Model the fold of this input.
Amino acid sequence: MGIRNVLSKVMDGYLSTEDFKKVAYDMRVKYKEEISASLPSAYEQRKVKGSAGSGGKAQVPWFCIFDERVTDKASKGYYLVYLFKTDMSGVYLSLNQAWQPFSKQGVIGRENIRRVSERIWDTLKRRRDVPVGLRTSIDLACSGHNDDLARGYEQGHICGLYYAAGSLPGEDQLEKDLECMLKVYASLVDMFIGENNANPFDQYQALIPEVCETSDSVSSILHDFSELVPVDEFREVPFPGSAPRAPSARPRRSAPYKPDYELMQKQRKRSGEKGEQMAMRLLKHLYPSCEILHVSATDDGAGFDIRVSGSAVGEELHVEVKATEKKSEHTSFHISANELRHAREDGEQFMLLRLFDIDGRHPGYYKITGAEVQHLVLTPNSYNAEIS
Done:
């Protein structure tokens, strides 16, 4: 049947009371298989779904093509999709985003998803594999009645192509266009994966608040994750707690200020994520014959971040990573009671890997064993309060 016949049959029969049920069924079963069969061999593993609505007739029926490393449903992530206009006068092949997460943000949701679309497109169009002439806006002919999802599709559109119902291209051209847009989709996924093999869905999720709250480009936001400093540029320094340190001058009393705890939390989260990624690469370099497992990626309560297993470290080594942007190895860092307990219990099987100057050209690090934790000067900065 091919793509052309599938698109024609949907646009010809979708608005017909007599034909709708058959068209809706064929979209879910038969037609999606035709789209899947038309995928180029390099993309034949992509998952295809068709929908005419769930529990009712959709204003905008669609065929989605998913890279399952990112998503397998239209309600999350980003994907390639054929979106039919509400009046069936045409269909878009769109690189788009899920509207559902943004819809929960209220009236600001449409503006935010549009910001993300524009920022992603600005970055994508600089890549060589993105062709000129792609449309960066779409009009689904929304009626104004119960059109929130359709409006979300319009704002979530990143780039794509349009086909009018009365002048669909031939099958060969439609297949070429599909391959072209699959390459653009793959380029976006690769951009989020970056050089250190990050999760392309998680990277996208982390990008959204950054885009909505700053004017930074996507490439500059992703720079922290996709262009990490080579391991051989790291510099090791001795553990500063093992030698006496000259007393520092008494600090002046500063003017009172109100801390931005939300911003501080975001900065700590960003430093922690980048630090753990850098630590994984560094440990693979230091212990090439060992198995390196990122434990905290799946279990944040283990008391350490990374497990190193192999003869080079005895049985195994439990590594807790502490990373900061500041350049001094003397910069303080946060450590929990659970992490301290594991350090003391594990002894020589525990390593606190301290990374500093993580945004610099030559990040520094030193290692603290479980036994050396006693050299840390611990200052309580929070308390558990109960009513006596």
